Amino acid sequence: MIRAHSAGCYSRRMGRIEPGALSDPEQVYLAATLREARKIEALLTARGVNYATQVEVLGGSSLFGSLRHGAGFYVTAAQAEYCRDALAQAGFSSGIVHDAERFGE
After folding, report:
1. Residues near 85 by Cβ (< 8 Å), separated by ≥ 6?
2. Does residue 66 come out as left (phi exceeding 0), alpha (psi in the -120 to 50 range) or beta?
3. pTM value?
4. Which residues pair with residue 54 across a beta bridge?
5. What's the mean pLDDT when you consider all of the chain?
6. Is 66 helix (H, G, I), strand (E, B) or coil?
7. Concatenated DSSP letters for 3-31?
8. Who has the most CB within 10 Å: 6, 33, 82, 97?
């Protein structure tokens, strides 16, 4: 599932748009739980950031061999560092995704 929010970069009221409307998307966060994902959504929304979410596979599998999934958060490349800084300042460092991690470097 992918969800995106409005085209205005710093709008406080966000409407849903198609994921393709988020230009030059870059992943900034991977939430492992629904509770964590909701906190990230609240933070990005409060900061007026447009974002899209997509279900992502978390590393490894569960005890029973099934894959674990989380919520990947994407923003425009121009806002990526701003969002990573905001997430780190808010105490969400563990799920931050940096460019090198995305490409396996």
Report:
1. none
2. beta
3. 0.76
4. 2, 72
5. 79
6. coil
7. EEE-SSTT-SS--EE-GGGS-SEEEEEEE
8. 97
Q: Which amino acid is at 6?
A: S
The token pair at 78 is 């121009």
Q: Which helix (H) or strand (E) holds 88?
A: helix 80-89
- Residue identified by tokens 């900061």 is 47
Q: Lowest-confidence range among 11-25, 27-41, 53-67, 80-94?
A: 11-25
Is it the case that residue 100 has pLDDT exceeding 90?
Answer: no
Residue in the block written with tokens 């121009």: 78
Q: Which residue has the tokens 């958060």?
A: 73
Provide the residue type at 61 as one letter: S
Four-point Cα dihedral 58, 97, 85, 26, nearest 10: -110
Residue type, 3: R
- Which is it for the CA torsion 97, 11, 19, 39, positive or negative? positive
pLDDT over 70 for what percent of the chain? Answer: 73
